[in-house]
Specification:
Blueprint: H1 2-15, E1 21-24, H2 37-55, E2 58-61, H3 67-71, H4 85-89, E3 92-97, H5 100-104, E4 107-115, E5 123-129, E6 134-141, H6 144-173
Parallel strand pairs: 1-2
Antiparallel strand pairs: 3-4, 4-5, 5-6
Length: about 170
């Protein structure tokens, strides 16, 4: 973290440039091997939060979820791998969720698991096209009516997939 602070100070002193957003690809790799790796991870995220507050910037980072989280429909704070204190340091914690079927349909869900100064617990549905490099093509907040329509769409797609699978299996038997 001290090297990061020096880098940001140099940007300011040499170029008069102050950043607005700091994106840390994977904060856990900044942790030094310690007797207790989890404590080291907590210190990294606490330090990133301090940098954000000192410089009035947004810090964006990613983390992995544990095995249980990968099996759940909607990952939450407690599904963070290694150290759940990462979520405690965050002002906003958003999880990216996608079933295999949603992936094939180029759909995903962003769930706001935590929002320190606002109401969390909401979901946003997004359409994607990785082939063209588009993470989000469009989005829709998940109101109860919209959620019902989405669930119906997923049921229809599951039924179509099951039908295609049974047709393929039937063709193999003949």
């Amino acid at each position: 973290l001290s090297q990061l602070k020096v880098f940001l100070d140099n940007l300011r002193m040499q170029f008069g440039f102050d950043i607005d957003v700091l994106i840390v690809d994977y904060g856990k790799i900044m942790a030094k091997p310690d007797k207790d790796y989890r404590i080291a991870i907590g210190k990294i995220y606490s330090g990133l939060r301090a940098i954000a507050q000192e410089r009035n910037i947004a810090v964006v980072t990613a983390t992995q979820i544990n095995k249980e989280g990968t099996r759940s429909y909607r990952a939450k704070n407690e599904d963070i791998s290694e150290d759940t204190s990462i979520a405690h340091h965050a002002d906003v914690f958003i999880t990216y969720n996608q079933t295999d079927l949603e992936q094939r349909m180029q759909l995903a869900r962003l769930y706001c698991a935590k929002a320190r100064h606002a109401e969390g617990g909401f979901e946003v549905y997004i359409t994607q096209n990785y082939a063209s490099g588009m993470f989000v093509i469009s989005s829709q907040e998940a109101t109860s009516d919209w959620r019902k329509n989405y669930d119906e769409l997923i049921k229809e797609e599951k039924a179509k997939e099951e039908q295609r699978t049974s047709v393929k299996e039937g063709a193999k038997k003949t």
